[in-house]
Design a protein that fits this description.
Elements lengths: L2 E7 L9 H10 L5 E5 L6 H14 L8 E7 L8 H16 L5 E6 L6 E7 L15 H16 L16 H15 L23 H14 L4 H10 L3 E4 L3 E4 L7 E2 L9 H12 L15 H13 L7 H14 L19 H14 L4 H31 L1 H13 L6 H17 L2 H44 L4 H4 L3 H11 L5 H17 L1
Antiparallel strand pairs: 1-3, 2-4, 3-5, 4-5, 6-7, 7-8
Length: 523
């Protein structure tokens, strides 16, 4: 019985986008593990990676899935040797890929069971088409090929059980997240008897952290358990109170029993904490702040220092207010704006968006669109330049001969055929230009290609950031955080507060009456 495992090698967000592909090739070709190595990309991990990387650059597809890593495993009782396993790997890749993709395989004998690792490029050699593995591809195409090849060499195929099921990556991720949440995770709060929290973390990390903070806030502001439950309902929670206390925050699919949040959050412990807080005074200004506000403050001071007349426009202030309200979402007072509590989970993105708007001085939605469009135009121009450079690198006979000459020259030992080829390449290059000048020409082309690729990565990152700002703008529009809202005058805001909280104006009216009486006495 042979078992096939499928792994996708994703693009790295920092550094070399195909760095995961290089790491996978080095892992499978480790001489301590591999008994046999082969494939149409070569048997050396660095050479195989260079071949695959060159193919990606030629078709201008450095991003996305970098490659795929498949594993064919044989049980310990299966009589298979390393050569047979290598033949299985070669036939499997030929049947699956049809010779259109570069691949390298390695037979590992470091475990009790024989297994073969296959790593192949995600970009086709002949037409540049990316390899696609849709949902259900394992049962419909890949495993039948594995079974067919195993039968060819007298190995038993995979035995399917009736209860066997498979899920896509999204469902697997969701199940894994649910499993993590069941563990509760480390409690990042101090013992509740102290009435203090640990040092503030820059960013929130999970729903569990947000729920703990909501419960802490509700406990500090509730004189009884009943008012505690009503306070949570006012924050958007669905409350189920029985033997256990279960809470479902707004924006989350499933409810959570509070005892899973860690020590101090079971129903009985919450009731004890409410009694404790009621008998101990609490500083009303002691509330949790999210994120790191200092970088944006420094950026604003820097802008003000460069130009004393600089001010944020209503467009920029709307983003500033959204970010600040999220950082200070727990500040006390009835007039505190309560934004979307789940926005705390995206606080880092809100901070990055605001810093970009201030640094680039994007002062309106129209300027945002113009920057986005200009970035796309610039990226297309750089891609066109990159295509021209690649044509000179891969289609020019001089460049091709120089690369091959350097490859042979760097070899420690060469065969007579390679020595002859080395002399022939040198003569062909020197017919056009001196060898030193040709090498400088090739190095200049490679530098131009690297510069273009770096510019494209920077521009794509910039476009993703602009798209995130546009998405945030639409979300703020839904929440009525618009330019009109940010352009309210202090007088209109005061009038609005008077309408919302008329009882707060009573002291001010009595003070005005006393003032009038004093003026009457003076007269």
């Amino acid at each position: 019985m042979a078992v096939t495992k499928l792994l996708r090698i994703k693009e790295r967000k920092s550094g070399d986008p195909s760095g995961g592909l290089k790491a996978a090739l080095r892992y499978i070709c480790n001489p301590d593990k591999a008994a046999l190595v082969g494939g149409n990309a070569g048997s050396s991990p660095d050479h195989a990676y260079a071949v695959m990387k060159r193919n990606k650059d030629y078709w201008n597809k450095p991003g996305g899935s970098a490659g795929f890593h498949y594993v064919i495993s044989f049980p310990p009782d299966c009589k298979v040797d390393a050569k047979t396993a290598a033949l299985v790997a070669e036939d499997f890749t030929q049947e699956l890929l049809g010779g259109r993709y570069y691949f390298t395989y390695a037979v590992h004998t470091d475990k009790d069971h024989m297994h073969v690792h296959i790593v192949f490029d995600s970009v086709a050699v002949d037409d540049g088409v990316k390899y696609h593995s849709p949902k259900g591809d394992w049962e419909k195409r890949i495993q039948p090929i594995s079974d067919q090849v195993c039968q060819k060499y007298g190995l038993p195929p995979l035995e399917y059980g009736e209860a066997r099921t498979s899920v896509d990556h999204g469902e697997w991720t969701r199940r894994r997240e649910r499993w993590k949440e069941k563990q509760g995770g480390p409690d990042t709060r101090d013992n509740w008897e102290t009435g203090k929290q640990q040092a503030e973390h820059p960013y929130i990390h999970s729903w569990f952290d947000l729920m703990r903070d909501d419960i802490d806030e509700a406990i500090m502001r509730s004189p009884s358990y009943g008012s505690f439950l009503k306070y949570l309902e006012s924050l958007g929670y669905t409350v189920r109170d029985g033997k256990y206390l279960s809470l479902k925050p707004e924006g989350r699919e499933r409810a959570v029993r509070t005892l899973r949040l860690g020590r101090g959050y079971s129903k009985e412990e919450i009731q004890e904490r409410i009694e404790f807080v009621r008998s101990h005074p609490v500083d009303p200004e002691d509330y949790r702040r999210y994120g790191d506000m200092e970088p944006i403050r420094r950026l604003l001071f820097l802008k003000k220092g460069r130009s004393g007349k600089w001010k944020m426009t209503p467009f920029q202030r709307s983003f500033y207010r959204s970010w600040r309200n999220t950082c200070l979402i727990r500040r006390p007072g009835p007039t505190a704006r309560r934004g979307s509590r789940s926005a705390v989970l995206q606080l880092e993105e809100l901070s990055d968006n605001l810093q970009f708007l201030i640094r680039e001085d994007i002062r309106s939605e129209e300027e945002l669109r113009q920057k986005w469009e200009a970035s796309g135009i610039e990226r297309k121009a750089v891609q066109s330049e990159l295509s021209s450079v690649r044509t000179r690198i891969y289609r020019s006979s001089i460049s091709r001969n120089v690369r091959r000459w350097k490859e042979l020259k760097e070899k420690a030992s060469r065969s007579p055929e390679e020595e002859s080829e080395l002399m022939r390449l040198k003569k062909e290059i020197e017919r056009t230009m001196p060898i030193e000048r040709a090498m400088a020409y090739e190095a200049d082309l490679e530098a131009q290609k690297s510069r273009c690729l770096e510019q494209i990565r920077t521009l794509k990152s910039r476009e993703r950031l602009l798209a995130g700002i546009d998405r945030q703008l639409m979300e703020m529009s839904k929440e009525n955080i618009s330019d009109q809202d940010t352009s309210r005058t202090p007088k209109s805001r005061k009038q609005e507060n008077r309408e919302k909280f008329p009882e707060r104006e009573a002291p001010s009216r009595s003070e005005e009456k006393v003032k009038n009486e004093k003026e009457e006495v003076i007269r």
